[in-house]
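Input sequence (633 aa), recorded before submission:
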Amino acid sequence: MAHKKPGLFKRIVVIALFSLLILSFAAWGIQDIFLNLGSNQVVAKVGEIEVTQTDFSNSLSRETSAISQQLGRSIDFQEAQQLGLTNRVISRLVSQALFTLQSNEMGMTVSEAQLKQEILKIPAFKNELGDFDANRFQNTLYQVGISESTFLTDLAKDIERQQINDAITKAIPVPQKLAEQLYSYTSEKRLVDYIEIPYSRFDGMSAPSDAELGTYYEDEKQNYLAPEFKAVSYLHLDPKEVAKTVTLTEEQIEEEFLAQKENLSLPDRRNLVQILLTDEAQAKEAQDKILGGADFNAVAKELTGSEGIDLGVMEKADLLPELAEGVFALETTGITAPIQSPLGWHVISVLEISPAREAVFEDVREQVTKDAALRVATDELISLANQLDDEIASGANLDEAATKLGQVISNYESIDAEGRDRDGFPLIGLAENNKFQEILGQTGTDDDSLLTELDDGGYFILKVNSITPATPRPLQEIKSELTQAWFESRRNKEAKAIAEKLADESRNGTALQAVTDEAAELIQFGVEINRFSSNVGEALAPALVRDIYKAKKGDVLTGQADDGYLIVTLSGIEQPDLSNQSEQVDAMKNSVEGSYKSDIFAQYLSALREDFGVEINQSSIEQVINPYGTSPY
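Predicted structure, token format:
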């Protein structure tokens, strides 16, 4: 258990004050605290708060749903992990837990009035007139897959977080002079005249002779290397393979079932539709009319202007506590009496009741048997990995240690840093694993790696038997691409030579438009660029833009662009007129303030992590992303 250190809030205030002297800080992540705590239902432990697999799965589901809508296609948890969404979700859940611990310690609470005030501000819940719309509120929550109860709980936590954030970042003054200087720097413009010598002028160039290509190959062959390949022996302790050999007693299988029974069972669920009203009198009126035989949706439309709000199938935990008791007190379908919540007055119709269903051992026997075997295998591998580590530490080589422990050595005869063979095809097995590739890259000839744990609870150790260094590919193998590179190199040199000649003439006093017969057609006058542009006119030339901002008025410069070489004269420098740019300066000031606040906030989170302690269970996260089988429920 993490022990709370005294004076955290005072220390954070000091951090905030000193941070005013610093323009930016490095962002603080949570990668350094990822640990493997073994296999259980907790994905993160933050102080005394446990973030469960259910918490993580629900948050990740909402995240993937939102991204899927943006992409126009569905993405699964595995793709979400590749996109970095899993780390983002874990980071957010950890941050929320840290703030919960801090707000609890500070005795912070959020009233119903505060909740209601914040809800009324949210644009997504407003109608065309800008007023709060209960139907939009419910539909929005339904679309993002979040219950009222969860939303209000999260909103209360957000309010508490914002109150703490405001306390440590509110008084962060940005001097007006600094804002003006930054705005002037970012808004200053350059005017240039330029000529482009297009590469297309040299398209008719003759192909290189064999001698020319051979010389070019000798000069450039280090840019055409075949990758380094390694011959590797490795020992992989795979829990899935070991699980296939595990023999379980009936007692072990039953113990696994009891451990998972709650998760495999289904709670009482109810299909709900509600009418949300502003006062109790209206709610009583709605109840009386419905009990008198009126249609539920007709009454809803009469009193609210739209039909009842479909809440879908809900568990008790999905509802606000005030609603849950009334809804789940009904033993048969029907309507509740009016119930008040922070959102108003509710009349809820229970359309269907799905009673709680307890998992039956025989129905899930196959699944829990697999899970039990995997857990036993993982435990066995921990012991086996310790024995293997001890053998290696005592001086045994990989072959000797494997033989003594009854394990089989596998081999990759030729593997590159990205897990491919000499033909460029991906190798299967551990070669596909990023951790294996990382350790392979760090291991030299005749060296054994350290025993390394994998995310699925397995282990591996490898030995590099030999290395074929990266060598230039034969000329005949790359002749086509080498010839194309020769053409590009030659036309670049020709265009650059012409550009440099014209630039020298211009520097010696010849007007830019007079340095070539084609200048009248090629020259562009008074082209405006800004500091963050990548283009000079329509030519992509980011390096030249940087040089232009270092130049003085009248300077002549040359530089490479995407389709040619440019000769540029800096004809003007335009400074912004701050007398009529007050809004833009204020925007810059607010942006800098926001940067200060973000940096201080990152420092604050780092201090909270150190104070309360954070541990991440990577194996438990991996179980959610790549589950070993699924429940029949």
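Checked by second reader. The first strand starts at residue 34 and ends at 35.
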